[in-house]
Amino acid sequence: MAEKHYYKEAFERADEDRKNIILEVGIDEFASKGYENANVNIIAKKAGISIGLMYKYFSTKEDLFITCLQRGMKVLEDALYDIMDSDDKLLIKAEKLIRTMVRHSKQNSNYIKMYNEITAERDSKRAKEIVEEIESKRSYIYNTSIKQALDKNDVRGDLDPGLYSFFLDNLLTSLLFSYTCDYYKERFKIYTGIDVNEADDEEIVTQLLKFIESAFTFEKE
């Protein structure tokens, strides 16, 4: 699925450094304050441009928000594609996925906070479009890898690729949010008794991989 752009032609023609500054400032504002409280005027001021020029680049606040979100999610999507396109067995891919999620959560927490923001109650055509774009890409790469593993008899033969893709993505998305979003941080602490910032990342990777391995390989006789 081709990525749809939500910015104007003027932004596409802008200097790369300027574009980078605007989007990084925007990501910081949206991540720290949430969509509703984020202020486009503040973003423009911190980016060193006028509010008039900002609206020459983006028609609406939501267009700016979604463009920032696309920038953040591309970093994760590129990493997922590299892993899932490899010739590794599915469980090796799973381990790499988990480690990537942990690393991405810590290094790019603002990107994850923005992603969590759009998964909340954002009932608009643009929000629905971007959610469909993000989820369709992930669904495709997970489904494809699981089907390939089935063809190679690397996983149990009675699993449903679509449902298992959905379950796998739920696990990994929850892990992403657990390092960055307050609600999910609290959930982690309630279930484990440990603050996620003090948790042993290697133990998290090991335990989640065991959980996934049992789901993909144990077949009831």
How helix-rich are the residues, as a percent range?
A: over 70%
The separation of the N and C termini measures: 40 Å
Class of secondary structure makeup? mainly alpha
Write the H/E string, N to C. HHHHHHHHHHH
Tally the beta strands.
0
Sketch the major β-sheet.
Answer: none
Shape field: globular
Round the mean pLDDT to the nearest integer and report it: 91
Beta content comes to under 5%
- C-alpha Rg, in Å? 19 Å
Uncertain spans: none
Structure description:
Helix content is 76%, strand content 0%. The chain is mostly helical and 221 residues long. The chain has helices at residues 9-13, 16-37, 40-47, 51-57, 61-84, 90-107, 109-119, 125-151, 161-178, 182-192, 201-217. It has 11 helices and no strands.
What is the fold's blueprint, element by element?
Blueprint: H1 9-13, H2 16-37, H3 40-47, H4 51-57, H5 61-84, H6 90-107, H7 109-119, H8 125-151, H9 161-178, H10 182-192, H11 201-217
Structure in a nutshell:
This protein has 221 residues and is an all-alpha fold. It is 76% helix and 0% strand.
Which key features would you list for this structure?
221 residues; globular
